[in-house]
């Protein structure tokens, strides 16, 4: 990779901190069943698929991941997905209009702001999310150095087909040693291909932010990514 290209990749996250829109972001949504009656799910499934497909076609929902779930004695697909919205309340309002929500068959267990997508690879494979979070208000110089190494690692993973999507967000960190006690630092969430959680964790440990102890990591099983 040419030197100028690498410099642009290193600078990109810090530029995005200032350029990100305050009005729209990508939210990662996880849901769980609230019912133990599979018949209710069967009866509502067609309407749910139709309504969900309309959100996908309009571009509001993307990056859908599917995993297995069981209700009663029946197996159903359970999804995690990414939705564009102004805030968490907007996410809940959109989901509440879907048939499963109207019939109180599912509940949202997590809706987190992922920021803005900056990498994407369309693959139908098993996915794990690697989510990083800074442990302290480290100096911008240290953050720049760490991100320069880690973003190159993510790009290398993407080139080799290990990354299916990546989101860049801004983390607010309290800085007790500064007059301005709130700092903004870029942070990311990466969906990677891995055979199990242990493999995904081993990948995460290759990131400089994790190795140095400057960031914590959370691994989440996403399932299979659907081509939309």
Explain what the structure shows.
It is a single chain. The protein has helices at 3-19, 38-57, 88-96, 99-102, 140-159, 197-204, 208-211; strands at residues 25-33, 61-71, 74-85, 106-120, 126-134, 163-174, 182-193, 215-225. The protein has 228 residues and is an alpha+beta fold. A hairpin with a 7-residue loop joins strand 6 and strand 7 (182-193). Helix 1 packs across helix 5 (140-159). Residues 1-22 have low confidence and may be disordered.
Write the layout of secondary structure elements.
Layout lengths: L2 H17 L5 E9 L4 H20 L3 E11 L2 E12 L2 H9 L2 H4 L3 E15 L5 E9 L5 H20 L3 E12 L7 E12 L3 H8 L3 H4 L3 E11 L3
Antiparallel strand pairs: 1-3, 1-4, 2-3, 2-8, 4-6, 5-7, 5-8, 6-7
Helix pairs in contact: 1-5
Secondary structure category? alpha+beta
What is the first-to-last residue Cα distance? Answer: 31 Å
Q: So how many helices?
A: 7
Strand content: 35-45%
Let me know the largest β-sheet.
8 strands, antiparallel, barrel
CA gyration radius, whole angstroms: 19 Å
Give the beta-strand count. 8
- Based on CA inertia axes, which overall geometry fits? globular
- Poorly predicted runs are 1-22
In sequence order, what are the helices and strands, one letter per element? HEHEEHHEEHEEHHE
